[in-house]
């Protein structure tokens, strides 16, 4: 298993993208192999997540920036599979964020909470067959959604109707006020 991870790590470092180009430039200027530079950066980020101030921000950036970038690329591509992958990630991320909003005040006091959260988010976005988003969506989110779909549809339709009525009322009132203002001048 370790050999497989090592091979995947090496393949990742040899892909052609912005990060690997930056690592190649650093390797050229310093003479240090890019695998050591990348390992050092990952180690520093890991240590910061474990002991650093503001680990919450770093963890949230890791959980947002890379998936957002790949989501934009997925939108721009012709393939549907990558769209589904990243939509699944964002649905699971949304559920996690809502759950975390209620539990974060307690969980953030646990040692290494942000390192664990970051590992969870990386698992959810990982390009592997045992991707966390796919597993959590198929085993938790989807069954709950299908069980309550009729109720959720009803609530969404009611809220949409109410929002439309409010928007119509506000628009009419604004037009009436503007007309009154014009008459008074």
Automatic annotation (TrEMBL):
User: Could you tell me which InterPro entries the record lists for this protein?
Assistant: TB2_DP1_HVA22 (IPR004345)
Does the keyword Cell membrane belong to this entry? no
Give the subcellular location.
Membrane
GO CC, alphabetical:
membrane
Keyword annotations of the record: Membrane, Transmembrane, Transmembrane helix
Q: Does the keyword Lipid biosynthesis apply?
A: no
Q: What superkingdom does the record give?
A: Eukaryota
Q: Give TM segment ranges.
A: 45-69, 90-114, 120-137
Question: How does it sit in the bilayer?
Answer: Multi-pass membrane protein
**Member of which family?**
Belongs to the DP1 family.
Protein name per the record: Receptor expression-enhancing protein
- Source organism (scientific name): Salvelinus namaycush
